[in-house]
Input
Amino acid sequence: DIQMTQSPSTLSASVRDRVTITCRASQSISNSLAWYQHKPGKAPKLLIYGASNLESGVSSRFSGGGSGTEFTLTISGLQPDDSATYYCHQYKSYHTFGQGTRLEIK
Amino acid sequence: EEQLLESGGGLVQPGGSLRLSCEASGFTFAKYGFIWVRQAPGKGLEWISDITSSGISTHYADSVKGRFTISRDNSKSTIYMHMNSLRAEDTAVYYCAKDRGHGMDVWGQGTTVTVSS
Output
């Protein structure tokens, strides 16, 4: 099974800051990686697919990078509405989610 | 608008059974695979099962293998999760999601399952 290790587990930043979340796969997954935003009581929202492709309708402040085993999600120009938990998800072999990163906007 | 609507959650005793449903609308249901994901209280997202567009191939996480069964009815645009031998650790919000092949682009709002005596 492919394990996904996401860091940090929590993150606190200010409005207009830029933050980066990292996800590491236990083996190469090529670019079979997605990122989601999840707010309490809501459905998860797809942000990035194929490691670096922005989902239609998602703000360009979100960007993804990496391939193989190391991936990043960067959020620039933080807004209060970005407060949420972010998950990486590999779909190369079955499915695995990272543990999540809780982002707090100060 | 593409939508998924889960139903069937509720309170069940340990060892009991439940069937979750996920009804799709707004897209060609038969073209896509689907997954079930759950979130236990205070925990992250956990993939538990998936089914291909044909329904021929299914997969399960070790945590539910042998107890849960995923199925689909293309005539009703509905995905099901049959859950048997439920345990306290199965308590969670259960989401279904549409598999576009590169990420899950449509999610339901979730249905809550509570396993308790």
User: Anything to note?
Assistant: Chain A has a mean pLDDT of 97. Chain A touches chain B through 25 residues (CB under 8 Å). Chain A has no helices and eleven strands.
